[in-house]
Design a protein that fits this description.
Blueprint: E1 2-3, E2 6-7, E3 15-25, E4 35-46, E5 49-55, E6 58-64, E7 67-80, E8 86-96, E9 103-109, E10 112-118, E11 122-130, E12 155-164, E13 168-174, E14 183-188, E15 191-198, E16 204-209, E17 213-221, E18 230-238, E19 241-249, E20 253-261
Parallel strand pairs: 12-20
Antiparallel strand pairs: 1-2, 3-4, 4-7, 5-6, 6-9, 7-8, 8-11, 9-10, 13-16, 13-18, 14-15, 14-17, 17-20, 18-19
Length: 263
């Protein structure tokens, strides 16, 4: 706080509790650093207090009243991390819906009296670090032993090999051309995770829980539709990396994606 050429520090502590909702969005130019949009809502709790400070010939009297106020806090920033931990940096603006002054200060000096007040609305730089831990491995298996036509002598074409340190990946499958009745199944390490799925222009999402080491994601065609071969558009999401793939399968050939998970 500064009045004329006299400056005195004013410290004000405020307790808050809030609910924090956020969404991460990837921007192609900075896909390695997702943008974070958030909105917090909650209450600020303040107890009545009075502080006096004297530095002759000046005196400052600061008062806080007992208040419980609702606040909103929109936030914009970036998030990054490795493994299960995350770091965030951003800007947030806290605004109180009750516009009552949170504090008032009266500055008394030889030249007169000056009154100052504030609502505690503020713009802040926020830095957070989130500590994560691996979830329990969950099974996405449909069957423990794959039935026909998986147990056959079809050759397998490996489309791509990806290295990662995450325990989970997702793959989305759809038909972005003519919907001609293509049907596929997906196996993870020999176990069925999607069985006899008819491809449409809607993206079907499959979650893959990965074991340490190499994991084979096998796409098997049950037919070739009206227009051979059986083709599917796919998006493989590994961490924050997204790969767009075109999968071609037939009654003679399967397509594989290999994901290597670091220990």
């Amino acid at each position: 706080m500064q009045v004329d050429t006299v400056r005195m520090d004013l410290f004000h502590l405020l307790k808050r509790t809030e609910l924090h909702l956020f969404k991460l969005a990837d921007i192609p130019a900075i896909s390695h650093l997702p943008v974070r949009f958030a909105l917090a809502a909650g209450y600020s709790f303040q107890q009545a207090n009075e502080e006096r400070s004297t530095k002759q010939p000046f005196q400052v009297v600061s008062r806080e009243t007992s208040l419980t106020r609702l606040h909103l806090a929109p936030e914009f920033g970036f998030t990054n991390g490795h493994g299960y931990d995350r770091m965030e940096i951003g800007l947030r603006y806290v605004v109180h819906l009750d516009r009552t002054n949170s504090w008032t200060s009266t500055f008394i000096g030889p030249s007169g009296v000056a009154d100052l007040a504030g609502t505690d609305d503020h713009l802040a730089i926020v830095l957070r670090y989130h500590f994560g831990w691996p979830p329990k491995e969950r099974s996405t298996l449909i069957e423990t032993r794959p039935p026909e036509p998986y147990n056959n002598d079809r050759r397998t074409d490996t489309l791509v090999t990806v290295a990662m340190h995450h325990h989970r990946a997702t793959v989305k499958l759809w038909d972005n051309a003519e919907i001609d009745g293509d049907t596929v199944s997906v196996l993870l390490n020999g176990h069925v995770v999607l069985q006899e799925h008819g491809l449409t222009n809607s993206r079907h999402r499959v979650v893959l829980h990965l074991a340490p080491g190499n994991n084979e994601v096998l796409v098997v065609a049950h037919n070739e539709g009206r227009v051979p071969p059986n083709t599917a558009s796919a998006q493989l999401k590994v961490g924050r990396k997204r790969l767009q793939l075109l999968i071609r399968t037939s009654t003679k050939q399967n397509t594989a994606i290999v994901i290597h998970r670091d220990q």
